[in-house]
Specification:
Length: about 400
């Protein structure tokens, strides 16, 4: 559980916590527009989601330790590339081909799979603890300070060092299953658990599609905020340092939200927990349409962090419940892949709307509607799992 928490925090936290902070320096160094610099956001989500389904299949068949080690190394290499490149195509390639796979392997599918294998009781709260947003809460402030005092290259080198020192050695200590567990005695001749569904069987389950679409819409809304937080704050007349503070508030609140919604997942079930956080987030986006003072805005952003952090624990528990523990890595990877169109469209459309109108208001209103739809999708998947076929 500790290793899974380190992996999620270092890969997701360093990347998402520094992205919006670095946009202005990227635009200045590479001589690109806001839409061009922000395009790296959808690309990393695209690279992660496209590979997630493949990663899920690999983790069902091969060493989790080796795969997560590779994911950690890809993250380190990505920051080194960003530190020294002055090419816009290389900048985009680093996010698509290095950070995208790293996020899929060591940031999302890997940690959730490791926890699902090691915890059977109180799995929701375990997933919540593992997904505490510690690093992403600190990183906006730390990255902004290093950037202002030492420049972009030093900031990227710092990120590479943080991941290399903390995560790379930790992945080498991973054990795929608990020592002395009964897993080895229930595996099929193909080396899989008896409740394992193939990809074709998973995509024929209505519960999978309901959960995948709901989680995709929730992820898209969180990514829009994460990639545009400082720019959104500036559009409201809030300076960059306070924008970084808002991003840190959202991340710090996520630490509580990860635990709270992990507990909710154990009590209400993952699907109903996902429906609850989607509905509440729709209300919060509606509040962003109001002319709020900074203190009230900080409370709303904090509540976003509280709810956003609960997505992974609830989705993970819902998939394991509906499709079986043995099918989890495949189902989780597929769900992440299915969510990529929502995120790509959401992030790119938000940037395009701002470029053309000078306001984020239309995009925020659209996100509120999408989250209300996500709540309906999630609630329809609340039923008990169907019997598994031995095939």
């Amino acid at each position: 559980g500790l290793i899974a928490g380190i992996s999620h925090n270092m890969v997701i936290g360093c990347l998402m916590g520094s992205f919006s902070v670095m946009l202005a320096s990227v635009e200045q160094r590479l001589q690109v527009t806001r839409e061009m610099s922000t395009a790296a956001g959808p690309l990393v989500i695209l690279g992660s989601a496209v590979l997630a389904s493949v990663v899920g299949e690999l983790m069902a068949r091969h060493s989790l330790r080796l795969l997560m080690f590779v994911g950690a190394c890809l993250s380190v290499i990505g920051y080194l590339v960003l530190a020294f490149t002055e090419s816009y195509p290389v900048y985009l390639g680093a996010y698509l081909l290095l950070f995208g796979p790293s996020m899929a392997i060591a940031g999302s599918v890997g940690p959730a799979t490791l926890v699902t294998r090691w915890f059977s009781r109180n799995r929701g709260i375990a997933l919540g603890l593992v997904h505490l947003s510690i690093v992403v809460a600190i990183m906006p402030l730390l990255s902004n300070w290093v950037l202002e005092n030492y420049g972009a290259k030093a900031t990227y080198l710092m990120l590479a060092a943080l991941v290399g020192i903390s995560l790379v050695p930790a992945t080498l200590a991973i054990r795929d299953y608990p020592p002395g567990s009964s897993v080895a005695h229930v595996l099929t001749p193909a080396g899989q658990m008896p409740d394992t569904l193939r990809v074709g069987q998973i995509i024929r389950r209505p519960a999978f599609w309901a959960l995948a679409m709901a989680s995709g819409l929730v992820i898209a809304s969180i990514m829009v905020l994460t990639f545009n937080m400082i720019q959104l704050a500036e559009s409201l007349g809030i300076p960059r340092d306070k924008g970084a503070m808002l991003q840190a508030i959202m991340a710090f609140s996520g630490m509580a939200g990860s635990i709270i919604f992990g507990w909710i997942a154990d009590r209400l079930g993952g699907a109903r927990g996902l429906a609850l956080l989607a509905f509440n987030s729709a209300v919060l986006f509606g509040l962003l349409l109001l002319d709020l003072p900074f203190a009230a805005l900080a409370v709303v952003i904090g509540l976003f962090g509280l709810h956003g952090a609960g997505m992974i624990p609830n989705l993970s528990r819902a998939l394991a419940h509906s499709l079986g523990q043995g099918s989890f890595s495949r189902a989780f990877g597929l769900a992440m892949a299915c969510g990529v169109p929502f995120t790509v469209i959401g992030v790119m459309a938000t940037a395009a709307v701002y470029t053309r109108t000078g306001s984020y208001t239309p995009a925020i209103a659209g996100l509120a509607v999408c989250l209300a739809i996500a709540a309906v999708f999630a609630f329809t998947a609340r039923g008990a799992p169907k019997a598994f076929s031995p095939a």
